[in-house]
Design a protein that fits this description.
The chain has 3 helices and 17 strands. The chain is mainly β. The protein has a 17-stranded antiparallel beta sheet that branches. The protein is elongated and about 65 Å long.
Length: 330
């Protein structure tokens, strides 16, 4: 999948874009205005440019897939596009717990179970701000291409409109996460938390935003990624006629265990990709180290990616290397 291509079995197209509305975010999950000063930045060199570029592409791709998986579980399915993120959203279970205050256990579509319990606060008959839910997955397979095992807590931060309609906004704080996602041979775990926003006030355009102020951590055999700063926006369009995806990555700080330090990355030219295929154009700027060294990942075509490497931070390209999107994705 391309960077920005989401998981699940839905028919939507995912892309990164600007959020249409500011968020009222609780202090305990607000990101800092600036990243910490004691960051161990990765030194970008001509020798490690391919590894650095691949790490950024894989981390961004993993994060967008994870956001789509979790979003498909906890956000409502729009009546006009019920399979957009997942054909088996657990949103109705949250509503049942909010109405009764009693735990709900449900068998997943293929195998396993999911249990939702909670502590509704203001309105006992509907989802409302300050409601808290605990979600537990026991090898839950809904036929969406992945299996979930583990748990997390969910706090409702904002509700605008009726979440059972196409036009609404819903903000969750996901905390205390211990979750494993298995998709065939691709297994990884998620810990800590993040803030997720579903904003379909401009339906059929739906903004699915994640905020990594809670220190989301994704781990697999290949690498361990930790995000400490920045935001990512996935725009899902419920119009199934869309034939192209435009992806944008906002400026984000990310730590890689494989590289032993942090990197910053952002899209400087939107990534253009035919639906479900590798991008054909676009540029991602990767930076790291005190010397402001950078790699500009330039997508020349669906089969050619050029790496412009400034290894000493003087804004002059010191080396040019070529690779493919498939090689960067691994």
């Amino acid at each position: 999948s391309t960077v920005g291509s989401g998981g699940g079995s839905g028919n939507g197209d995912f892309q990164f874009s600007a959020s249409p509305m500011p968020l009222d975010i609780p202090v305990d999950i607000q990101p800092p205005d600036l990243p910490p000063l004691d960051i161990a930045w990765v030194d970008i060199t001509i020798a490690n440019a391919q590894d650095v570029s691949a790490t950024v592409v894989r981390a961004a791709d993993r994060l967008s897939d994870f956001t789509a998986v979790i979003g498909g579980q906890i956000f409502p399915s729009p009546p006009s596009a019920p399979n957009l993120l997942s054909s088996n959203s657990k949103f109705e279970l949250l509503g049942a717990v909010a109405a009764t205050g009693e735990p709900v256990n449900e068998t997943c579509a293929v195998s396993g179970t999911v249990t939702v319990s909670g502590d509704p606060e203001n309105d006992p008959v509907s989802l409302s701000v300050y409601d808290k839910f605990d979600v537990v997955f026991d090898t839950c397979d809904d036929g969406d291409g992945y299996t979930l095992e583990g748990n997390f807590s969910l706090f409702v931060n904002e509700v605008v409109g009726d979440p059972r309609t196409d036009v609404t906004k819903l903000v969750y704080s996901v905390r205390d996460m211990t979750l494993t996602i298995a998709a065939g041979a691709d297994n990884y775990s998620a810990s800590k938390g993040l803030l997720l926003v579903w904003n379909s006030l401009a339906f059929p355009v739906i903004v699915l935003e994640n905020l990594k102020g809670a220190g989301l951590r994704l781990s697999s055999q290949a690498d361990v990624y930790s995000w400490s700063y920045g935001r990512q926006y996935l725009t899902v369009n419920a119009d199934v006629a869309i034939s192209a995806t435009v992806s944008e990555l906002t400026k984000t700080d990310m730590e890689s265990a494989f590289l032993g330090g942090e990197l910053r990355y952002e899209t400087i030219v939107p990534l253009q990709a035919p639906d479900g295929q590798n991008p054909e154009s676009g540029e991602i700027l990767v930076s790291g180290g005190a010397g402001n060294e950078t790699i500009r990942i330039v997508i020349e075509s669906s089969t050619i990616v050029r790496l412009d490497i400034d290894s000493d931070g003087d804004n002059i390209v010191d080396d040019i290397q070529f690779t493919t999107w498939a090689a960067l994705q691994g």
